[in-house]
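so the lab meeting is tmrw and i was supposed to have these ready like two days ago... anyway. pasting both below. for each one the top line is the aa sequence and the line under it is the structure tokens. i havent really looked at them closely yet so no promises
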Amino acid sequence: MLFEKTKNIIEGLLFIKGEEGLTIEYLSIFLDINKKDAENVLNIFKTDYNSKEDTALIIKKFGNIYKMVVKEDIYIKIKDGIESKKMTKLSKSALETLAIIAYNQPISKLEIEKIRGVNSDFIVNTLVDKELICSNKVLDKIGKPKLYETTDLFLDIFGLESINELPNIENNNIDKNLNNFLED
């Protein structure tokens, strides 16, 4: 069981970090403990905090980032009154490109364009600007093309803990599953 002082510190950090969220690395440095212990502390805190019924907030993990968010049932009641990044509209071609990257990451722009059949420079740059994708790797070929993959912000916006939670695209209902996922 976590000490009350540590719980209060974690809760305060989650609140202060807001949309940015609290990373395992940050907590490790802040509490002067190793990363594995920091992750364990965060997971214990998350489980304990989320068991409370008398609060509007829960702790969710998005990739390596922990955030304090509004419980889903409460969010649904107030979502029309708030503005969030989730409500930012992407064009169908941007969503298509984002889906291609999500399911094939890491992927080069040339591979994206082969799948889409059209030039994707503008859309890829837009997705990078919106911080939904990034290019931290390069392909070991002539010209060293950038490889694109989704970011933790992508996971956050689509409510995923990891990329493994994407809908299965191998069944016959690919369009229905993907559309339902993107509309949530």
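ok protien two:
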Amino acid sequence: MKPIAALRLPVAKNLGGFVRLLRRLQVPHRVTEEGPEQVLWVPTDDMAEQVRELHARYPDGDSAPMVAQPALPGPGRGISAWRQLRASPVTTVVLLLCLLVGAISLLGENLEPLHWLTFVDFHQEGDYAWFKPWIETLEAGQWWRLVTPMFIHFGILHLTMNGLWYWELGRRIEWRQGSLALAGLTLLYAGVSNLTQYLWSGPALFGGLSGVLYALLGHVWLFNWLAPSPLYRLPKGVLIMMLAWLGLCLLGAASVLGFGEIANGAHVGGLLVGCITGLLGGALARRKMR
């Protein structure tokens, strides 16, 4: 494959910091000198476009607030937590909203404030919850309910696990495709997974980011299959583990093991829509690479 010239800069320009940044991101590259210029080469057009955008934002490299210190092996190690947050605004806002809702609802112990966020409105009478018809909810203009259940979590383990996975996968998508893309995908995934769960189980109290997480996983997996990128390179064991867990949940093993009721509809719906967007996004990215 013929290398692509991503940058042409004067020899006097110090590229040391920017090259170190590319190494942290595991971006394959080399630098050569051609007369009064130094040229930074990368393998593909798509990668060249990303490198140009990266250089435009962080020409000195070392000061870049990159995604960093991920729970899974990946790019951007060694950057401060504050810079990670600044580089991932959508990921950060979603997680802060989950924390806020968790604090207000006492992680599901206080149901009173949650009736504004559940997929359909409800009211309590003793130990029972009575749900309004979904169509009635939509006719009242409460369209936000399609996505807001993703902010509801029941228990510290539920919130912690979902939060860590969203932090890991959300940052990758936000850096690779941009904040607007992550925001749009998150809303789409939440709507599809929540609707699927409602159709799957009927009126019930459900919530959490897990449907969105399965969508993000499917998106990253198939996008990277068609248009490989260091940011989307996940260990094979992660995908196997997540799919195995989905299978166990569908078989009812998770409930038997004491994990409570699992939103299987949200998981399945999320994974399917994420695979679709991953195929579409990856195909477009692959076309640009040619």
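from a quick look at the 2nd one: The two ends are 11 Å apart (CA to CA). The first strand starts at residue 4 and ends at 10. will dig more after coffe
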